[in-house]
Specification:
Order of helices and strands: EHHEEEHEHEHEHEEHH
Shape: elongated
Strand order of the largest sheet: 2-1-6-5-7
Largest sheet: 5 strands, parallel
Bound molecules: ligand 4FV
Helix content: 25-40%
CATH class of the largest domain: Alpha Beta
CATH architecture of the largest domain: 3-Layer(aba) Sandwich
CATH topology of the largest domain: Alpha/beta knot
Radius of gyration: 22 Å
CATH superfamily of the largest domain: SPOUT methyltransferase, trefoil knot domain
Strand content: 15-25%
Number of domains: 2
Number of strands: 9
Structural class: alpha/beta
Distance between the termini: 32 Å
Length: about 230
Amino acid sequence: MRFDVITLFPDMFFAITDEGVIARAIKKSLLSIHTWQLRDFSANKHRNIDDKPYGGGAGMVMQVKPIRDCIAKIKQETPQTKVIYLSPQGQKLTHQLAVKISTFDSVTLLCGRYEGVDERIIQQDVDMEISIGDYVISGGELAAMVLIDSVSRQIPGVLGNQDSLNDSFANELLDYPHYTRPEIVDGQQVPEVLLSGHQANIDAWRKDQALKNTQIKRQDLIKKQPNI
Ligand code: 4FV
């Protein structure tokens, strides 16, 4: 899978391309990340890509032309790319949406700054508007990295032997509790069943714990899926 990222801060993405699961997946050619410095598509020598909003008001708006030219350049390399704009107004990023996006061959992530992008980009160039949550962050870059990480986990081989099947939300439930050595720490004991070596009992206990976790912490998920 190919990720193209349109951003004013391409170096931010070293956080995922140089470290951890995503870095390893890139080395294994399971995915690729191509950042595009939007200022390279500016029409002026000052490399501006934003301007004051029509109608007045605070902040700056990212202009159409540099973004549209950058998308056109990306589409010369990957014509089928889906353009995703990260924005608080987008549909919420969920496990199901991450799974859906992981089936695309390539996506282009447009990272907003300031007050966001000119509406005409959303109307004509954006295929999906996605939000990582109901709050405002300084730029779309962190949201893009969250999306890349959650989507990449769904790509076979990215997680190696720790598959994402037991991730919270993978089966509409939160994850079960996890324990590791030592068996007792500060008087806290690992549940006996996990020491039994009886895998069927362990699996049953984990499923029950996942359900209890969900009932306690996320009643809303139970209401959505009453049959779980
Ligand atoms: C955001 C979110 C988000 C809004 C103004 C970037 C910022 C600035 N993106 N989910 N919540 N974006 O707050 O995706 O342009």
